[in-house]
Amino acid sequence: MTRPVYINGIGSVSAQKTFDNSVFLEDVTYRSDTIINVISPDYKSYIPPAAARRMAKGIKMSTVSAKTAIQEADLEENKIDAIIVGTGLGCIGDSEKFVRDIIDNNEQYLTPTRFIQSSHNTVAGQLALGMGCKGHNFTYVHSAISFESALLDAKLQLENKEADNILVGGVDELVDHHIDTHRLIEHIKQEPVATMAVLKSGTKGAIFSEGAHFFVLSGEKSHSCHAELVGVSTFNNLSKNQVSEKARSFLEENNLTSDSIDLIILGYNGDVEFDGYYDGLANGLFSNTCQIYYKHLVGEFDTASGFAFWLGNKIIRHHNIPPVLRLNSVEVSEPKLILCYNQYRGENHSFTLLRKC
């Protein structure tokens, strides 16, 4: 018999003030832009300044998020058996700088630091070095399902008793070249859009952002437990008509129906070409279910669904749904089952199911 998987600690660095786990979206930052950066914590409170100066932004964000999750789980760092990270772009900032150095220096006199920190698995490796973790260390680079791939790996290991405590995270950072290319191909909105008006923009593209979200997943429930991870399922390509069918099948696999779900978290990002994938669930299968969204607050990036996962855990713990997240007026006082659905530009669909424990 497989054992359940519990989320005992959570951490987030995002475009909102989420690095402080003692509060929950009580002070929301509103913007009107096409690009939004994270609200950075005081990194020197978590990382020695000399070390922080050599770290890419993605590594710094991840270090804060990971340490917050481990601290909340009340674990010593040497109790982490494995580190699994999902990322769409890795430390793309150092990759960009390294290539620029090659060109500017005519392929000579290059320092190795930027090359070492330019690979996708840099975050997982740096966390392991800092914590002294010699266990399973893996990075998934699967575009918009990178985070879910990491979750699935951890879930299987814990269910099969191959580990007891696993640090799982998703991280992506913004850099100028990435912004410029995606603006050129109109994946980023051309005109600034106000936070609360993003779904009414009627334009192509999304508001791009960045963030790091880490979680301690365990085979044993602790006093700090937020929720149980019931299931994760991903699909590369689905038509709009298939989304509801796959959602229903996913719930059936977990012995549930759409009526069982108390709250659904949808990844609407204001892209008029692709938000229709969410409409099928919002107006059909889950039309009588409490619905919320989140990318108007934290933007779009490959591992943005990590924020939805953080959100689900927070809502279950706090028994509270901040009004700024609401899509409809259906009330639920204490959500026990939460479904997250995300996709990006019609590809890489994911369903994640959380249960109060």
What is the percent of helical residues? 25-40%
Shape assignment: globular
Overall structural class, as computed from helix and strand content, comes to: alpha/beta
Q: How many helix segments? A: 11
Oligomer: single chain
Q: How would a crystallographer describe the biggest sheet? A: 10 strands, mixed
Q: Which architecture of the largest domain per CATH?
A: 3-Layer(aba) Sandwich
Radius of gyration, taken over Cα atoms and rounded to an integer in Å: 20 Å
N/C terminus separation? 19 Å
The number of distinct structural domains comes to: 2
Organism: Meishania litoralis
Protein name: Beta-ketoacyl synthase N-terminal-like domain-containing protein
Annotation keywords:
single chain, 357 residues, alpha/beta, Peroxisomal Thiolase, Chain A, domain 1, 10-stranded mixed sheet, two-stranded antiparallel ribbon, 11 helices, 31% helix, globular
Précis, in short:
With about 350 residues, the protein is an alpha/beta fold. It is built from eleven helices and twelve strands.
